[in-house]
Amino acid sequence: MRSIASGVGLSLLQGGDQKLNVIWPKNKALNCAFEELFNPIAEATVSSAYKRSNLLKSSHQSRIDKRMAAAVINKILGIDHCVKADADFHLSEAIAGELPLIVKKKRNIYIKTCAEFGAIDHLLGVFKPISSLQREIDKRKGSYSDNTIGLHIRRSDHIAARANSPLSMFIAAIEKELDKHPGVKFYLSTDDTETVEVLSNLFPEQIIYYQKDLSRDSSQGIRDAVIDMYCLAGTHKIYGSFNSSFSDVAARIGQIDLVILKISNSPNSI
Q1: Distance CA 57, CA 106 (A)
Q2: What is the pLDDT of residues 176-213, one digit of tens each?
Q3: What sign does the dihedral 50-54-60-64 (CA atoms) show?
Q4: Residue 157 CB contacts under 8 Å (≥ 6 apart), including other chains
Q5: 86 partner at 20 to 30 Å CA-CA among 3, 15, 180, 202?
Q6: Is 244 exposed, middle or buried (0-12, 13-18, 19+ CB in 10 A)?
Q7: Which of 246, 156, 145, 243 is nearest to 187 (CA)?
Q8: Residue 154, number of CB atoms within 10 A of its CB
Q9: 3-state SS, residue 120
Q10: Do β-strands 81-84 and 44-47 pair in parallel, antiparallel, or remain unpaired?
Q11: How close are the terminal C-alpha atoms of the chain, in Å?
C-alpha cells in the first residue's frame, strides 16, 4: 500500500501524464489479489505479474560497464530506467530523492520495492476496501464506544516486536487508560491467540476482538488483515508494536495518534 501510494504521488507530480502500472504478485507472503481487497484506483492499473521483471537490471550500478550493459538489456525489455530496492525492500534515500527528476527525464521506469519512497499520508485515501469488507468494517465499528482505542500487538514471526513491545506494556497502557476513562473500549488486532486469551480474561468488558484467519498465505487471512487495519484506523488512537508497518499504516489512514510501546533501551521505531 505504501509503495503504491508513493507511485501515485510520483505520477501526480507529472500531472498524471505518465501512467502508473502496479505489479501485485500473489505469493506466500501476500496470497490475495488486489481486487479481492480494494476497489480500482483511478490513478493506477494493477496487474498480477510482469514476466520479464527478473531480467531487468538496476540502472544504479557502481561500474560504468555494468551501467551500460544494464541500459542495453533494459532498453530491449522496454524499460528506460530501473530502480531496485535493497535486501530489506527499501530504496536508499539518495535514490528515492532522485526519482522525481528521473520520472521527468525518462518515460518507462521500473521501480521494484514494497516500501514507500515519498510523502504518502494524504495519498493512502486512494485505497477503498471492496463493499463486502467495508460492510464488515462498519459492523465492527458499530460496537465501538465514544472512546475506543486500538491495540496492535504483533507477535508470530516478528522477533523485534516480541522482544521490544512486551505484553506487559500493553496491559499497563490499558490500565492507565481505564484509570482516566473507565468507559474506554479497546479494539484488539493481534496475530497471537495467547495474547487474545490473556487480555480477554483480564479485561472482559473492555476488549473488542473478532476471530480471524491468521495466515498470510490464504486469501481469507489477508482480507481479515485489511478489515483489522481499517478497524484500527477508526479508533481514537493506537498503541502499536515496535517496528510494525501495520500499526503505522493504520494510524496514517485514520490520521490518528500512534504510540509505539517499546522498552526504554530499544532503538527508535519506524
Answers
A1: 16
A2: 999 999 999 999 999 889 999 999 999 999 999 999 88
A3: negative
A4: none
A5: 15
A6: buried
A7: 145
A8: 23
A9: coil
A10: unpaired
A11: 16
Neighbours of 223 (CB within 10 A): 20
Contacts 24+ apart (CB under 8 A), 20-25: 20/44, 20/45, 21/45, 21/46, 21/47, 22/46, 22/47, 23/47, 23/48, 23/49, 23/50, 23/53, 24/48, 25/49
Q: Structurally, what CATH architecture does the domain formed by 131-261 represent? A: 3-Layer(aba) Sandwich (3.40)
Predicted model pTM: 0.89
Q: In this predicted model, what pLDDT tens digit does every residue of 109-118 receive, in sequence order? A: 999 888 888 8
Query: How does pLDDT run across 23-67, given as a tens digit for each residue?
Result: 998 888 788 999 999 999 988 999 887 778 889 999 999 899 999
CA 22 to chain centre: 15
Q: In which residue are the cell numbers 479497546 written?
A: 186
SS3 85: coil
The single residue listed with the C-alpha cell 555494468 is 66
Name the DSSP letter for residue 267: P
